[in-house]
Amino acid sequence: MSFIEVNHNKAYYEVHGEGETSLVILNGIMMSSASWQPFMGMLSKQFKVVLLDFYDQGKSEYLETTYTQDLQVELVKELLTALDLKQVTLMGISYGGEVAMKFAVKYQQMLSKLVLANTTAYTNQQLKAIGDSWIYSAKTYDGKQFFKATIPPIYSSEFYESRVAWLDAREKLFDKVFDEKWYEGFIRLVISAETHDVRDQINVINIPTLIIGADEDIITPLSCQEQIHQEIKNSRFVVIKHCGHASMYEKPIEFFSTVMGFVTVGHEHFVI
Amino acid sequence: MSFIEVNHNKAYYEVHGEGETSLVILNGIMMSSASWQPFMGMLSKQFKVVLLDFYDQGKSEYLETTYTQDLQVELVKELLTALDLKQVTLMGISYGGEVAMKFAVKYQQMLSKLVLANTTAYTNQQLKAIGDSWIYSAKTYDGKQFFKATIPPIYSSEFYESRVAWLDAREKLFDKVFDEKWYEGFIRLVISAETHDVRDQINVINIPTLIIGADEDIITPLSCQEQIHQEIKNSRFVVIKHCGHASMYEKPIEFFSTVMGFVTVGHEHFVI
Amino acid sequence: MSFIEVNHNKAYYEVHGEGETSLVILNGIMMSSASWQPFMGMLSKQFKVVLLDFYDQGKSEYLETTYTQDLQVELVKELLTALDLKQVTLMGISYGGEVAMKFAVKYQQMLSKLVLANTTAYTNQQLKAIGDSWIYSAKTYDGKQFFKATIPPIYSSEFYESRVAWLDAREKLFDKVFDEKWYEGFIRLVISAETHDVRDQINVINIPTLIIGADEDIITPLSCQEQIHQEIKNSRFVVIKHCGHASMYEKPIEFFSTVMGFVTVGHEHFVI
Amino acid sequence: MSFIEVNHNKAYYEVHGEGETSLVILNGIMMSSASWQPFMGMLSKQFKVVLLDFYDQGKSEYLETTYTQDLQVELVKELLTALDLKQVTLMGISYGGEVAMKFAVKYQQMLSKLVLANTTAYTNQQLKAIGDSWIYSAKTYDGKQFFKATIPPIYSSEFYESRVAWLDAREKLFDKVFDEKWYEGFIRLVISAETHDVRDQINVINIPTLIIGADEDIITPLSCQEQIHQEIKNSRFVVIKHCGHASMYEKPIEFFSTVMGFVTVGHEHFVI
Lengths: 272, 272, 272, 272
Known about the structure:
Four copies of one chain form a homotetramer.
Chain A: E1 2-6, E2 9-16, E3 22-26, H1 37-44, E4 48-52, H2 69-82, E5 88-93, H3 95-107, E6 111-117, H4 125-138, H5 143-150, H6 157-162, H7 164-177, H8 180-194, E7 209-214, H9 222-231, E8 236-240, H10 247-250, H11 252-264
Parallel strand pairs in A: 3-4, 3-5, 5-6, 6-7, 7-8
Antiparallel strand pairs in A: 1-2, 2-4
Helix pairs in contact in A: 2-3, 4-5, 4-8, 5-7
GO molecular function (chains A, B, C, D): hydrolase activity
Domain AB hydrolase-1 (chains A, B, C, D): 23-252
Keywords (chains A, B, C, D): Hydrolase
């Protein structure tokens, strides 16, 4: 169990593998380092993988007051410094992608590449309303209510159609695992993303950047990734088909093929 | 105040205009005949328009037990018979489109044309899960909770971005207007749609059919309308851009242009 | 046979119907007033329809030197003035849409509504290259060559799949009907569109505007219509599904439903 | 210079790199082994890469009579056998993807993975018409004519907009490099693809398969890859954005990231 302490607040992280290339992964809002375990065998063969639980997430500390994503940005920076990691590939999905963009705007000299999956440069009014509905249901501390308010739009219709039993089991799980402290942490995480808006800032990013979207993502639809693509010069944009917001869960082969290939591939200018 | 009584249950309807062509409109699940009032001036100049509140909707009677959409189909049939309307254009949006398809499968000889907007031939597992979440929140009898659980995914992001004040007012309105009886009626309506599946039946429909989809509809996405289009021979399929599920509210000009033109246009075979 | 003479050059036009509302239609580059005849019965019941052959098109005069689309704009203006038509709906498809936009930028006080189908605000490099290939093949004066160079990408794959015999007949027809003068006229028309670029001008248009796109249009893809939609405030944007560039030929019901509804519909501000 | 001889016809191939994993690449119709040279440095670090010129392509022999793609399938089989390659990843783009599908239907035991880029299971009527237009222009033996007939729809509009000078140079190059023998070979290649239809056969493929599409591919649009995806069970489908038919030229980073990741990634069943 490894922790890093910033301003007296402890955050949990894991390091897997011995590869020369470091891949630092930032979670979506309802995820934790545990969410990536199924893929660690595969990833750690090739990379040194760093997983991190944001504050109010997984095994990291619950905070007592609200904050913005800048706090998570500083946490990432302290972790990379503490581990003496330079020129890492930083990958973030959803909330993690938002933090990754903010990190790249401020500290891109620490990065060699950036991967942004199912994320957005701006918490628009609709996403804010969705966040509000998540907060409202979290305040009931009722896992069933929370599941119903958050999960149905997360996945693609194909996934829902084929995974009904898994989703039912998941609903029962929600009812058991989350306690009041978790819900309160979740609410603070949602609030920390409400003011997210880096639309006018990400044009400074000039490291190789891969943008992954999913055609049935309705939390951060393709128009959100297109906006990022327009702002970040020379960014690469691929779309996973028949896939919802939790792309790395729904289509892990497609997701990790693209990510692992992107981290590995040279970025010389091809003269064709 | 006009009512029709079927099996001792009263349903409310309105007739507007004197046109030779009749347009019968079936509501979405959260709508009522009142929802169409802003457009009655325009529509009644050209058509005889019939509005109907389904059972458990608007001014129609609340029922006491659950039922399937077949009950609503029979209600429509009784109404057309009572008004002695023949060869009408039947238009349904969302839930109303589901009933309209079932009606056309059974009684297409009563119709001259069919318009299906933002609807689906099948309540898939994801839509069922969304319905479950609506039921769950309706059971709280809490307007704010209900609003947050149902409204954010209904509209397009553009609409949300530009209509924040209107949406806030709407949220306050929800909190006032709905009572326990309404919520219980709403729950029965949702349940009546849970078993909806006419995928194997609609291929019998062979009257001129217009299908309207919206590119940001995430309740019944374009793939749902494509499926209907593939099944109904010679059906016409148009898409309103930058528009969510409640297309006639978000983009009334686009919506009614297409509908009014389709009702008016001849359907001779054009020799080009 | 009606002609209007501008600067000693005669252009052919037709007037159909007696409706109070005037609909003036501008052709695509390979079309002529004859192309619209299959639809005149339907349209003339409701509207006074004006068809016009641009210079170098149909029964209008062949010119002797190259020109820009501005010449066609002035032709339209002279025709409307001569016919004493005020507040008309101007509809243009493809090349005709380009002229329609230029007309609206300069003379929108003469228009009540604008319909732009399968057109673009800008002849981009790819469209210019396509135009060059058309010119190159026109210079062979070989109908078969010309057909093969221009027609395959015009239609949707569905249309091609279902209309092979019609397309074969069409190829034979091309070989017979076009003479050297026609090809030279066609080349001048293509050249007149090469410098088309009203991207920075159409934001002055503030009459009700309908934009029609087709999802399989590869001459002026949806991104072209989206660009127009972003520039013309309050423009309405609908898409015909499974349809190529010649939308009014491939999907006449969808096309004319939308157009006729749009011309008819009121444009009051709906208070919803 | 390595050649393999099948039935007295010699075909050219190259082997690059020493990797344990073999990647065999099949060309598009206008390509040759030379087309992949810019990427060999990158690919050969990780894989043993085999390039092959089909008959009538590059340095391979020109044939004297027409044939079907089955001939190319047998050529690939003889090459793999001669090189004693087992369990290779076979990747084909466009025409090469068509041959790759036919190969996989017949000899999938020789493959470990399959990559299909910008290809189709069926030469539909439109694609056949496009092929006819290519043949017609090839018969002129005029490089400029040929360029204009084939190239403009190959690339995305973004590529065309940004690479005008390169495209102009390319047009001049075409005029010099191709001789009558090349054009006749090209015509035979087009004819060999005219009868391509494996729609009912590819459902036997059950090796890990990656399908790459491009959103602006108008030669083999996304609907073609979707069709392949529906037929090949568990196939993976990703789309490169703002990209035309020659995806590996337009977006090499996106293309090779996805391919290299897919070849590397494990295909265990992830238990999430």
